[in-house]
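Example record

Each entry pairs one chain with its bound ligand, EPZ.
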Amino acid sequence: MEKYVINGGNKLYGSVKVQSAKNSVLPILAATVLADGPVEILNVPQISDVKNMVKILACLGCKTVYDGDNIIIDSTSADCYEIPSALARELRSSVFLLGAVISRFHSAKIAYPGGCDIGLRPVDLHLTGLKRLGVQISEKSGYIICKCDRLRGNEIMLDCPSVGATENIMLAAVKAEGTTVIKNAAREPEIEDLQNFLNKTGAKITGAGSGTIRIDGVKKLCGCEYQPIPDRIEAGTFLIGAAMCGGEITVDGAYPENISSLIHKLTENGCKININNDKIVLENHRTLASVKSIETRPYPGFPTDLQAQYTALCCVCSGHSIITENLFETRFKYVPELRKMGADATVIDRNAFVRGVERLKGATVVACDLRGGAALVLAALAADGSSEVLDISHIDRGYGAFEYKLRMLGADIVRVTV
Ligand code: EPZ
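Structure tokens for the complex follow.
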């Protein structure tokens, strides 16, 4: 087990380069199963979700080369359609493989996926969509077993704009016979990134980013080299950290338009933000004003993946805030840990009621999921005194070189093996 030891109170100064988006790289890795040739994905973050996804692809018979920056996947020799359960349970994005493996082998077997414990996280929309494309699905002793003679295009209306279901259906439809139209599709930038990747391999997909995606089935996809979009959630995490600690940082290589909802909120809090192409400069040297109400929504609304980090910021603003989590049932598990640091925050159902305090104080806290863990780190950096953040394997799932990047900005943080 590893922990962070943090001495809070330092202001943050300097520039930080954003990694390729975790939630783009993972579905793109799943998509490599469909390509008849090597795919190279550039500037991939060194995070455990990526490492586990690469291990799964190797188990399917794909040739994988991961040099820590770029990944080369050659699925030409892939010959297995059963995703190992121990790995599948490590991450949510293993479920994206269903669509790709079904398309490649017309069979697939996968254990129910893992991922952050932030709610029920059903996969009913994934399975309904695959059935509409002609897949027969049975569920037995924790496994999802899929078979199909052929995949046929169809119209699919999603009950809610699920990111994973949208991506899974895209992957199953890309080589199906005929045309598939996904209505009420997720609009996240990572969906558009997956479309752009697939089209670079020879797919015919339009509409990603809008609520309706059209996929005209093709016979063959080829290898390619691809640079995924920058990680908007990592960018937002650093911006919130600088807002909480004070100082002036430049987030380099971000797409500001992908986190405009956060930028508007931080401006409302009183931060000075300048945008210059792919550089976002945030400056703050005073106590922030609270924003009264924040509600997480599907993109382009305020991202649920920044809810925890922003709630930590609300804890050190002057005034009251109510944060409402509309996507996941239990995404406030980190709040009791913030209270150990002196936060005045109470959770009732899907709402966190926060009254800002002047300073948080260092404490020993436990990370319980990826973004909640990141929120605890930001709180510890802003707090007076020393903190320990335990069980940081959750954070390692989504942030590459996190403590290194924070130290480059002046934070006093070290990783310790316990
Ligand atoms: C993706 O998860 C992201 N993960 C999550 O990021 C992100 O929080 C989420 O999208 C929402 O933006 C990856 O891309 C690997 P959903 P996913 O399906 O696909 C309900 C992070 O921190 N739903 O869009 O699992 C579900 O219960 C992670 O990086 C169904 O009801 O999210 C939830 O309420 C955490 N049935 C809502 O949709 C289904 O079949 C949104 O879930 C699927 C989802």
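The two ends are 6 Å apart (CA to CA).
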